[in-house]
Design goal:
Growth Hormone, Chain: A, 0% strand, mainly alpha, 17 helices, globular
Length: 493
Amino acid sequence: MSTRDAPAAVPRRWTALFFIGLAQLMIVLDGTVVNIALPSVQRDLGISDGDRQWVITAYTLAFGGLLLLGGRIADYTGRRRTFLVALLGFAGASALGGVASGFEMLLVARALQGAFGALLGPSALSLLTVTFTRPQERAKAFGVWGGISAAGGAIGLLAGGALTDYLDWRWCLFINIPIALVAVAGGSAMLTESRREGRARFDVPGVLLATAGLVAIVYGTGQAESDGWRSATVTGLLAAGAVLLAAFVLVERRVPEPLLPPRVLADRTRGAAYLAVGLAGAGMFGAFLFMTYYLQIVKGYSPIRTGVAFFPMVLTVMVSAGAISARLLPRVPPRALIVPGMLVSACGMLWMLTLEPGTGYAGGVLVTGLLYGFGAGMIMPVAMNYATRGVDQGDSGVASATVNAAQQVGSSIGIALLNTIATSATADYLVSHGRSPAVAKQALVEGFGTGSAWGAGILLAGALIVAVLMNAPRPETRPAPGAETEVPLPAHS
């Protein structure tokens, strides 16, 4: 049981890519569009300062904790079916959040968004994996996918600022509904069903250990921003998460139907791709946050002006991912793109060290954003491609979930770590220079520069690790294994 010969489906699969990409855009947008609206949400619903973080945390905990389970559900129950159900569920949860009359209702909606996102992300990426099997077409498809993943955060800032300024914060949630419905309509018509052979058997101990471990790490790193890395809560959560995930690895080696088969991680190139995604997320998401704060707090930009300021970076990501990575990926080894991409992005972060409160846009954030975007467009499509490349078709859902989890955990740890470093550097500057308004802005800039320098260090370390581990040669020109023997399931199975 598999899919049809790749060549026979050319017209449908490129159209299908559009609807799969819409789903990915919706997931990535939701990571930033609500953040911009958070002050308005807090005022409107009367949420306390201590509770406001849960509007974000409820989503990230459910999303990060349930990803591996979501990937396995897609493998066993059908990737197309899971994709469509997750889209409808995400739309329903967004509608519930948009009409929320209080904090508790919004919290439930955000947790449901995260849970359905944990189904949607792996099913979308696994559909991409099983649909595009020929190296050149796969490279183009993952170029589009990587461009959406890397640029979606900046698009979310622009959309969040515009919706909050000109309409209402509730539209930051309502906007998901038409996107999801269009993706459902197109996915129903264009996507072919595929799933793992045999009866669904879920690894219950693995599900519990993986979910609890990921939740502990994501929540622990989130708490580190407010409580500090040395607090008993943070260290306890991180230690518990590490122990639970170590136990998960041991369990997976012994159960007959593991949630995450060791063979998925054992491949050297695939493991390096997961590391690349995780380290890129750890290094780059923090720097993106610093650029946002620099523009709004130091330079006084409005939310929508901040979004517009990031637009050149979005274009650079798209050009880098679609015109460069997609063309070179079928011709060169993966590390020949990922390593330079990490180095270029690291240079963008180091450029933050040159910023001052009076630095102009063209010589400051624009340069940082262009370098950052160019590097991201070289990293994400290639790493995501090789994170799912060559995996057994029955494991494509869980392989897709693993790369999503690597990005989620990496970005959570990176944001918390770099924000803590930046905050400490700002506090040290204020202690030694006083607290006038001018000094306060300079202190923020010092903190952003220090945090970005550490982010650059993470990327440089990632470049070295990928250069050593990812020894895969350039792709072969024939289809991926199994591509010629696949037969589609009925469209509505």
